[in-house]
Amino acid sequence: MSLKFPLVAGFKLTERLGGGSFASVYRAINFEEERVGACKVVDLTPQATDEERRTLRKEMKSHSRMHHPNVIEFYNAVIVEPGSSSAYYPAVYMLLEMAAGGDLFDKIAPEMGIGEDIAQFYFTQLLSGVRYIHSQGVCHRDLKPRNILLDAAGTLKICDFGLCSIFKDVKSEKTRQLTDRCGSLPYVAPELAGDEPYDAEPIDVWGCGIILFTILTGSTPWDEPTKNSSDFHRYLRGKCFDEDPWSRFSPDCLSILTGLLAVDPAGRLTCAQAFTHPWMLRPSQLASQGPAAIAHKLTENLRKQGDYDYIDPSEAAFDVDEDGDSTMKSATPHQTQFTQSLLLFSQTQSGKRYTPQLTRFYTSVGPGILLPLIEDALASLGVKTKPAEHIPDKSNPHRGLVQIRIGGYDQRKLMYKGYVKLENFSYQQYSGTFCLMDRDQGNPISWRQLWKALVMSPGIQPLVLRK
Questions:
Q1: Domain ranges within the chain, ordered by starting residue
Q2: Quick one: which of 153, 197, 214, 275 has the most CB atoms within 10 Å?
Q3: What is the DSSP secondary structure assignment for residue 182, as one 8-state letter?
Q4: Taking the complete model, does pTM exceed 0.85, yes or no?
Q5: Angle at which helices 251-260 and 201-217 cross, to 10°
Q6: What are the backbone angles phi and psi of residue 53, rounded to the nearest 5°?
Q7: Is domain 12-97 in CATH 3.90.226.10, yes or no?
Q8: Does the record's keyword annotation contain Nucleotide-binding (predicted)?
Q9: Fold for the domain defined by 102-286
Q10: Which residues are catalytic?
Q11: How far apart are CA 307 and CA 299, in angstroms?
């Protein structure tokens, strides 16, 4: 008997949206209430240690306490123990708010970033969420691009409390220092390189500084915050500020960045101090311009680079009515002015489909011809691949997709993993292959760089459809 997923608070798990080394995320639908969520599924095996179980309990306890506009909402959880006679797959099922806008960093052009106005708009939301998390006595400890999402209205959402730690008793205000080391090297604070206990809040402030730098430039500032990194060593000596990308920043922007990235945690800006910094107090009109304008401002550099020409070569995101106003082509739970402006919908063999990843393209040849060309191109880029597998469509035997498991390391020595998925498509005068690069693990910006390299590779580029 094959095991199945349980209903979680009335939500049925449908398609897999992504995942990482320790968990998968599925779309979850409550058909009776017409609601859509996301469900994080963490496998439970008989070999699961007491420490792993304590970590999961801490994640659920900490996350369920969070109720803030810039933090993914935790709705409910179900635990199915291994070794039971249950018909359900043994796992921890965490039902969460759906972030239909996808990864924030999937919309940011590598090595270019975004302008200071839109960066300030989203950084204010990030800082607001982090300040709230700290007010609940919790330190996130894993602030990085893949944990920053957007909802259907374009609001920033912090997710994944898997590495969080409780550092403060909210009632007594008593705090404690932390001792364990965790996080990804490009994003961790320098004090974690030592063996001494460390204060919790400055760790997340440093992570906010790295995220702000990455938003502005489209790259992280260094491999790791130690003298093993030449980029960090130049920062320590003050030798980088006349060089690109540091030289791009306005004086106020550079000031807040160096305040957030002060090497001594005692001299680092606090969240409260960051909010009163002159760069944060600059007036902004973005919030009043509406979600469509925000979406276009966010992706302005991607559009300038021509990336959107590959994402949807066949049609615009909006129809225009007789009064010249934009109107939605159809209604889905994820279809809003923001997601529609981002073109988070793809034309596939089964019709128009919600696709939050912008790392996709169309070709003029079918999957059978394209597959070996994709494999050759990936090999030339130094990407490791596994043999392609065919995934049938249970509802239609004539449909399905071919997927290739891929992996490797980016320029900052961080591992990435994911799939290249190929399926037939036919729409109006176009036919061929719809190709989606679906990331499981790694930096979204590095994944976008790999997507662009694949699109522009000699064997693929002549076949790619574009506007």
A1: 12-97, 102-286, 313-463
A2: 214
A3: -
A4: yes
A5: 140
A6: -70, -40
A7: no
A8: yes
A9: Transferase(Phosphotransferase); domain 1 (1.10.510)
A10: 142
A11: 10
